[in-house]
Amino acid sequence: MVRLSALSKNYERATNSLDPWEGGNVMANKKHPDILKRGVEVWNEWRRKHPTIRPNLRRADLSEANLRGAYLSEANLRRADLSKADLSKADLSKALQPHFLITAM
Hints:
The chain is built from three helices and no strands. It is an all-alpha fold and 105 residues long. The protein has one domain (28-105). The longest helix is centred in the first third of the chain and has 15 residues, at 4-18. It is globular and about 30 Å long. It starts with a helix and ends in a 56-residue tail after the last helix. Residues 1-25 have low confidence and may be disordered.
């Protein structure tokens, strides 16, 4: 007989690996960082056209990126590299943020 706790752990492990918001080794959606790297104006326009999408930028390399004024609300930024990124006037409301302090340049 399989114990309930074992089933629960297997379910949790399986769902975490698929959930872009929690756990697992989920990487960024490859399209999302590519859109952002095309510039803030392109990114913000894409966000306006797709208001129901929660951008997944988990583990994305955004180091030294110019994100000034970027609409990053509700984006998954966990483990994203934002070192030396310009986040001035960026909207980070409800964003899942890295486990370190974000400071604007």
